[in-house]
Amino acid sequence: MEDQLIGRVLRSSTIGYACGTRSNELDGPSFGAFVRTYTEDGSDPVTDVIGLIYAIRIDDDPLVRQLIMANQLNPVTLRDQRENRMIPVEISVVNIGYRINGQSLHNMPPRPARSLDPVCLCDNACIRGFTDRFDFFRLVLNTTEVPSEDLLAAALKHAAAARPVREQREFLVEAGRRLAQLLSHDLARLNHLLRLIKP
């Protein structure tokens, strides 16, 4: 499967980054989706930084504000606004690991992505390879900047969907077992997560 480019890095840190795109290119990205960014020239041995989308923000512009004030919105004008105008979209990503020489590591990358590096949706093979182990759970659960339970549940649904149908239920059950180990001290949080990922 060919990479689906969804944007380019605007600003970044080792914790995560924001990427920018246009509103008419917003078909693929969704909350909890796995994305990767990399250096195009191949100069960085950390070729893939893996993250999860935790927020998508669509900015307005002066024309949108004027259209909202109109009594009746013409369907042609609405379609033109959505399809032809370049409304900026900002996608926020939290880093959950990286791949180096084909090996997945579930910890913070050694350095942040660079401005204008491409950001792509991970294909199914990348997601399956990265989620064979659940070591990234702790990174997501301990990140205070994001809605961690909802984000982890959405990511697990994406990871399950990347597997053959016959493996999806077992994957979610195994994830639930791992969550029970990690959150045995916080039953309310655990119960909420288990309800969210219930197959």
Question: What would you say about this model in short?
Answer:
The chain has 199 residues and is an alpha+beta fold. It is built from seven helices and seven strands. The chain has one domain (4-197).
Helical fraction: 25-40%
Provide the spatial order of strands within the biggest beta sheet: 1-2-5-4-3-7
Number of domains: 1
Poorly predicted parts: none
State mean pLDDT (0 to 100 scale): 87
Number of helices: 7
Structural class: alpha+beta
Strand content: 25-35%
Number of strands: 7
Alpha carbon gap, first and last residue: 26 Å
Listing every helix as H and every strand as E from the N terminus to the C terminus, the arrangement reads EEEEHHEEEHHHHH
Indicate the overall shape: globular
Please give the largest β-sheet: 6 strands, antiparallel, barrel
C-alpha-based Rg, rounded: 19 Å
Can you characterise this structure?
The protein is 36% helix and 26% strand. It is α+β, with helices and mostly antiparallel strands. It has one domain (4-197). The chain has a six-stranded antiparallel beta barrel. Strand 1 (4-12) and strand 2 (16-22) form a beta hairpin. Helix 5 packs antiparallel against helix 6, helix 5 packs parallel to helix 7 and helix 6 (165-182) packs antiparallel against helix 7. The longest helix is centred in the C-terminal third of the chain and has 18 residues, at 165-182. The protein is globular and about 55 Å long. The mean pLDDT is 87.
